[in-house]
Amino acid sequence: MDKALKFAFGSLVVSFVVLAIKYVAFAVTGSLALYSDFLESIINVGTSVAAIVAIRVSALPPDPGHPFGHHKAEYLSAVLIGVMIIIASLLILDEAWNGFLNPTPIEAPALGLAVSMGATALNAVWGLLIIRFGKRARSASLVADGRHMMADVMTSIGVLVGVVLVVVTGIAVLDAAIAGLVALHILWSGFSVLRESASALLDESVPAETLETIHSIIASHAPEAIEAHDLRTRHAGKATFIDFHLVVASQMTISRAHAVCDRLEAALEKAIEGALVTIHIEPENKAKHKGIVIH
Protein backbone atom coordinates (compact mmCIF):
# COMPACT_ATOMS: atom_id res chain seq x y z
CA MET A 1 0.00 0.00 0.00
CA ASP A 2 1.24 3.49 -0.89
CA LYS A 3 2.60 5.40 2.12
CA ALA A 4 0.29 8.37 1.49
CA LEU A 5 -2.68 5.99 1.49
CA LYS A 6 -1.51 4.49 4.79
CA PHE A 7 -1.44 7.98 6.30
CA ALA A 8 -4.93 8.64 4.96
CA PHE A 9 -6.28 5.44 6.56
CA GLY A 10 -4.46 6.40 9.76
CA SER A 11 -6.29 9.74 9.70
CA LEU A 12 -9.61 7.94 9.39
CA VAL A 13 -8.85 5.81 12.45
CA VAL A 14 -7.68 8.82 14.46
CA SER A 15 -10.79 10.78 13.41
CA PHE A 16 -13.12 8.05 14.68
CA VAL A 17 -11.22 7.80 17.98
CA VAL A 18 -11.27 11.58 18.50
CA LEU A 19 -14.97 11.70 17.58
CA ALA A 20 -15.80 9.08 20.22
CA ILE A 21 -13.74 10.85 22.89
CA LYS A 22 -15.35 14.21 22.18
CA TYR A 23 -18.81 12.73 22.34
CA VAL A 24 -18.00 11.42 25.82
CA ALA A 25 -16.83 14.93 26.83
CA PHE A 26 -20.11 16.44 25.58
CA ALA A 27 -22.28 13.72 27.17
CA VAL A 28 -20.60 14.23 30.54
CA THR A 29 -20.92 18.03 30.60
CA GLY A 30 -23.84 18.97 28.37
CA SER A 31 -21.70 21.94 27.25
CA LEU A 32 -22.78 23.65 24.02
CA ALA A 33 -19.15 24.43 23.22
CA LEU A 34 -18.15 20.78 23.64
CA TYR A 35 -21.14 19.75 21.52
CA SER A 36 -19.93 22.14 18.80
CA ASP A 37 -16.47 20.61 19.08
CA PHE A 38 -17.97 17.13 18.64
CA LEU A 39 -20.02 18.32 15.65
CA GLU A 40 -16.93 19.76 13.97
CA SER A 41 -15.09 16.47 14.45
CA ILE A 42 -17.73 14.60 12.45
CA ILE A 43 -16.38 16.50 9.44
CA ASN A 44 -12.93 15.06 10.22
CA VAL A 45 -14.26 11.61 9.41
CA GLY A 46 -15.68 12.85 6.10
CA THR A 47 -12.46 14.60 5.11
CA SER A 48 -10.41 11.50 5.88
CA VAL A 49 -12.66 9.42 3.65
CA ALA A 50 -12.37 12.06 0.90
CA ALA A 51 -8.58 11.97 1.21
CA ILE A 52 -8.49 8.18 0.84
CA VAL A 53 -10.65 8.28 -2.29
CA ALA A 54 -8.59 11.11 -3.82
CA ILE A 55 -5.24 9.43 -3.22
CA ARG A 56 -6.47 6.15 -4.72
CA VAL A 57 -7.91 7.89 -7.79
CA SER A 58 -4.89 10.17 -8.36
CA ALA A 59 -2.60 7.13 -8.33
CA LEU A 60 -4.42 5.54 -11.29
CA PRO A 61 -2.29 5.41 -14.46
CA PRO A 62 -3.20 7.49 -17.53
CA ASP A 63 -5.89 6.02 -19.77
CA PRO A 64 -7.40 6.96 -23.16
CA GLY A 65 -9.92 9.25 -21.50
CA HIS A 66 -7.35 10.82 -19.15
CA PRO A 67 -4.01 10.84 -21.03
CA PHE A 68 -2.39 13.20 -18.49
CA GLY A 69 -3.35 11.01 -15.53
CA HIS A 70 -5.70 11.62 -12.61
CA HIS A 71 -3.48 13.86 -10.48
CA LYS A 72 -6.07 16.62 -10.05
CA ALA A 73 -8.37 14.30 -8.13
CA GLU A 74 -6.51 15.38 -4.99
CA TYR A 75 -7.39 19.02 -5.60
CA LEU A 76 -11.05 18.14 -6.13
CA SER A 77 -10.90 16.34 -2.79
CA ALA A 78 -9.29 19.37 -1.16
CA VAL A 79 -12.13 21.55 -2.50
CA LEU A 80 -14.63 19.13 -0.96
CA ILE A 81 -12.76 19.28 2.34
CA GLY A 82 -12.82 23.10 2.24
CA VAL A 83 -16.57 23.09 1.64
CA MET A 84 -17.09 20.65 4.52
CA ILE A 85 -15.03 22.85 6.84
CA ILE A 86 -17.18 25.85 5.92
CA ILE A 87 -20.39 23.87 6.48
CA ALA A 88 -19.12 22.74 9.89
CA SER A 89 -18.33 26.32 10.90
CA LEU A 90 -21.80 27.51 9.89
CA LEU A 91 -23.44 24.71 11.88
CA ILE A 92 -21.37 25.64 14.92
CA LEU A 93 -22.28 29.32 14.51
CA ASP A 94 -25.96 28.36 14.44
CA GLU A 95 -25.61 26.30 17.64
CA ALA A 96 -23.61 29.10 19.28
CA TRP A 97 -26.34 31.61 18.47
CA ASN A 98 -29.02 29.35 19.94
CA GLY A 99 -26.87 28.84 23.02
CA PHE A 100 -26.33 32.58 23.33
CA LEU A 101 -30.11 33.07 23.42
CA ASN A 102 -30.67 30.17 25.83
CA PRO A 103 -27.52 29.61 27.96
CA THR A 104 -27.35 26.43 30.07
CA PRO A 105 -25.05 25.48 32.98
CA ILE A 106 -22.17 23.04 32.50
CA GLU A 107 -22.07 19.79 34.48
CA ALA A 108 -18.91 17.91 35.58
CA PRO A 109 -16.55 20.40 33.88
CA ALA A 110 -13.31 18.89 35.23
CA LEU A 111 -13.95 15.45 33.75
CA GLY A 112 -15.19 16.93 30.48
CA LEU A 113 -12.11 19.13 30.17
CA ALA A 114 -9.75 16.21 30.86
CA VAL A 115 -11.42 14.02 28.23
CA SER A 116 -11.47 16.84 25.66
CA MET A 117 -7.79 17.65 26.27
CA GLY A 118 -6.85 14.04 25.47
CA ALA A 119 -8.69 14.22 22.15
CA THR A 120 -7.10 17.57 21.35
CA ALA A 121 -3.56 16.29 22.00
CA LEU A 122 -4.13 13.28 19.74
CA ASN A 123 -5.54 15.49 16.98
CA ALA A 124 -2.63 17.95 17.20
CA VAL A 125 0.10 15.32 16.99
CA TRP A 126 -1.50 13.50 14.06
CA GLY A 127 -2.49 16.70 12.23
CA LEU A 128 1.05 18.10 12.30
CA LEU A 129 2.44 14.72 11.22
CA ILE A 130 0.26 14.35 8.12
CA ILE A 131 0.73 18.01 7.08
CA ARG A 132 4.48 17.48 7.18
CA PHE A 133 4.28 14.23 5.23
CA GLY A 134 1.66 15.61 2.83
CA LYS A 135 3.89 18.54 1.87
CA ARG A 136 6.87 16.25 1.38
CA ALA A 137 4.81 13.84 -0.73
CA ARG A 138 3.05 16.73 -2.51
CA SER A 139 -0.35 15.32 -1.54
CA ALA A 140 -2.91 18.15 -1.56
CA SER A 141 -5.61 16.02 0.04
CA LEU A 142 -3.38 14.95 2.95
CA VAL A 143 -2.32 18.55 3.58
CA ALA A 144 -5.95 19.69 3.49
CA ASP A 145 -6.94 16.87 5.85
CA GLY A 146 -4.14 17.82 8.23
CA ARG A 147 -5.11 21.48 8.16
CA HIS A 148 -8.67 20.57 8.97
CA MET A 149 -7.40 18.56 11.94
CA MET A 150 -5.40 21.58 13.10
CA ALA A 151 -8.52 23.72 12.70
CA ASP A 152 -10.24 21.17 14.91
CA VAL A 153 -7.41 21.59 17.43
CA MET A 154 -8.00 25.34 17.45
CA THR A 155 -11.70 24.66 17.97
CA SER A 156 -10.94 22.43 20.92
CA ILE A 157 -8.57 24.96 22.49
CA GLY A 158 -11.19 27.67 22.16
CA VAL A 159 -13.78 25.35 23.66
CA LEU A 160 -11.53 24.49 26.58
CA VAL A 161 -10.95 28.18 27.27
CA GLY A 162 -14.68 28.81 27.05
CA VAL A 163 -15.56 26.04 29.48
CA VAL A 164 -12.92 27.23 31.97
CA LEU A 165 -14.23 30.81 31.76
CA VAL A 166 -17.80 29.65 32.26
CA VAL A 167 -16.82 27.66 35.35
CA VAL A 168 -14.63 30.41 36.83
CA THR A 169 -16.97 33.35 36.17
CA GLY A 170 -20.31 31.59 36.33
CA ILE A 171 -21.37 33.42 33.13
CA ALA A 172 -23.03 30.65 31.13
CA VAL A 173 -23.38 32.71 27.95
CA LEU A 174 -19.56 32.67 27.52
CA ASP A 175 -19.88 29.01 26.52
CA ALA A 176 -21.73 30.02 23.34
CA ALA A 177 -19.65 33.15 22.73
CA ILE A 178 -16.34 31.28 22.66
CA ALA A 179 -17.83 28.59 20.40
CA GLY A 180 -18.94 31.32 17.98
CA LEU A 181 -15.49 32.94 17.86
CA VAL A 182 -13.79 29.64 17.17
CA ALA A 183 -16.34 28.86 14.44
CA LEU A 184 -15.24 32.05 12.67
CA HIS A 185 -11.64 30.81 12.77
CA ILE A 186 -12.75 27.51 11.21
CA LEU A 187 -14.63 29.42 8.52
CA TRP A 188 -11.44 31.26 7.58
CA SER A 189 -9.54 27.94 7.45
CA GLY A 190 -12.12 26.52 5.05
CA PHE A 191 -11.84 29.50 2.72
CA SER A 192 -8.03 29.18 2.77
CA VAL A 193 -8.22 25.52 1.68
CA LEU A 194 -10.63 26.46 -1.13
CA ARG A 195 -8.41 29.29 -2.34
CA GLU A 196 -5.28 27.13 -2.54
CA SER A 197 -7.12 24.25 -4.24
CA ALA A 198 -8.68 26.59 -6.79
CA SER A 199 -5.24 27.94 -7.72
CA ALA A 200 -3.99 24.42 -8.42
CA LEU A 201 -7.08 23.53 -10.46
CA LEU A 202 -6.44 26.65 -12.56
CA ASP A 203 -2.96 25.35 -13.48
CA GLU A 204 -0.94 27.58 -11.19
CA SER A 205 2.77 27.75 -12.05
CA VAL A 206 5.39 26.05 -9.89
CA PRO A 207 6.95 28.04 -7.02
CA ALA A 208 9.65 30.59 -7.83
CA GLU A 209 12.47 28.45 -6.43
CA THR A 210 11.43 25.47 -8.56
CA LEU A 211 11.21 27.71 -11.61
CA GLU A 212 14.74 28.96 -10.93
CA THR A 213 15.96 25.35 -10.77
CA ILE A 214 14.34 24.61 -14.14
CA HIS A 215 15.97 27.69 -15.70
CA SER A 216 19.38 26.69 -14.35
CA ILE A 217 19.15 23.11 -15.61
CA ILE A 218 18.04 24.13 -19.10
CA ALA A 219 20.80 26.75 -19.33
CA SER A 220 23.57 24.37 -18.28
CA HIS A 221 22.61 20.98 -19.77
CA ALA A 222 22.19 21.77 -23.46
CA PRO A 223 25.40 23.45 -24.68
CA GLU A 224 24.57 22.53 -28.30
CA ALA A 225 21.38 24.62 -28.20
CA ILE A 226 21.02 28.39 -28.71
CA GLU A 227 18.18 29.35 -26.40
CA ALA A 228 14.98 28.15 -24.76
CA HIS A 229 11.78 30.18 -24.67
CA ASP A 230 8.03 29.96 -23.98
CA LEU A 231 8.64 27.96 -20.82
CA ARG A 232 5.39 26.91 -19.14
CA THR A 233 4.94 24.97 -15.93
CA ARG A 234 2.06 23.69 -13.84
CA HIS A 235 1.69 21.19 -11.07
CA ALA A 236 -1.03 18.63 -10.40
CA GLY A 237 -0.63 16.51 -7.29
CA LYS A 238 2.74 14.78 -7.46
CA ALA A 239 3.23 15.65 -11.15
CA THR A 240 5.02 18.77 -12.41
CA PHE A 241 4.42 19.51 -16.08
CA ILE A 242 7.22 21.38 -17.87
CA ASP A 243 7.17 22.37 -21.53
CA PHE A 244 9.30 24.78 -23.56
CA HIS A 245 10.74 25.48 -27.01
CA LEU A 246 14.42 24.70 -27.56
CA VAL A 247 16.19 26.51 -30.41
CA VAL A 248 19.06 24.65 -32.11
CA ALA A 249 21.23 25.24 -35.19
CA SER A 250 19.42 24.55 -38.46
CA GLN A 251 22.06 22.05 -39.57
CA MET A 252 21.75 19.90 -36.41
CA THR A 253 20.52 16.40 -37.19
CA ILE A 254 17.28 15.08 -35.74
CA SER A 255 19.09 12.33 -33.83
CA ARG A 256 21.48 14.82 -32.23
CA ALA A 257 18.64 17.17 -31.28
CA HIS A 258 16.80 14.20 -29.80
CA ALA A 259 19.85 13.33 -27.72
CA VAL A 260 19.95 16.90 -26.37
CA CYS A 261 16.29 16.62 -25.40
CA ASP A 262 16.88 13.28 -23.68
CA ARG A 263 19.72 14.81 -21.65
CA LEU A 264 17.54 17.75 -20.60
CA GLU A 265 14.61 15.53 -19.67
CA ALA A 266 16.82 13.26 -17.57
CA ALA A 267 18.34 16.23 -15.71
CA LEU A 268 14.94 17.81 -15.02
CA GLU A 269 13.38 14.52 -13.90
CA LYS A 270 16.30 13.90 -11.54
CA ALA A 271 16.08 17.36 -9.96
CA ILE A 272 12.28 17.62 -9.78
CA GLU A 273 10.30 14.63 -8.54
CA GLY A 274 7.38 13.78 -10.79
CA ALA A 275 8.56 16.01 -13.65
CA LEU A 276 6.84 15.39 -17.00
CA VAL A 277 8.79 17.23 -19.69
CA THR A 278 7.75 18.22 -23.21
CA ILE A 279 10.31 19.92 -25.50
CA HIS A 280 9.54 21.47 -28.89
CA ILE A 281 12.63 21.74 -31.13
CA GLU A 282 12.91 24.84 -33.37
CA PRO A 283 15.53 26.00 -35.93
CA GLU A 284 17.66 29.07 -35.19
CA ASN A 285 15.52 31.40 -37.32
CA LYS A 286 12.80 30.92 -34.68
CA ALA A 287 15.00 32.39 -31.95
CA LYS A 288 13.27 35.14 -29.99
CA HIS A 289 16.47 36.35 -28.25
CA LYS A 290 14.69 36.18 -24.92
CA GLY A 291 13.90 33.54 -22.37
CA ILE A 292 16.72 31.22 -21.28
CA VAL A 293 20.14 31.76 -22.81
CA ILE A 294 22.11 28.51 -23.13
CA HIS A 295 25.65 28.55 -21.81
UniProtKB/TrEMBL annotation:
Q: Where is the Cation efflux protein transmembrane domain?
A: 11-202
Which superkingdom does the taxonomy of this entry point to? Bacteria
The places in or outside the cell where this protein is found are: Membrane
Q: Where are the transmembrane segments?
A: 12-35, 41-61, 73-93, 113-134, 155-188
UniProt keywords, alphabetically: Membrane, Transmembrane, Transmembrane helix, Transport
Any Pfam family hit:
Cation_efflux
Provide the membrane topology annotation: Multi-pass membrane protein
Query: What PANTHER family does the record point to?
Result: MITOCHONDRIAL METAL TRANSPORTER 1-RELATED (PTHR43840:SF15)
The protein's name is Cation diffusion facilitator family transporter
Q: Lineage from the top down?
A: Bacteria, Pseudomonadati, Pseudomonadota, Alphaproteobacteria, Hyphomicrobiales
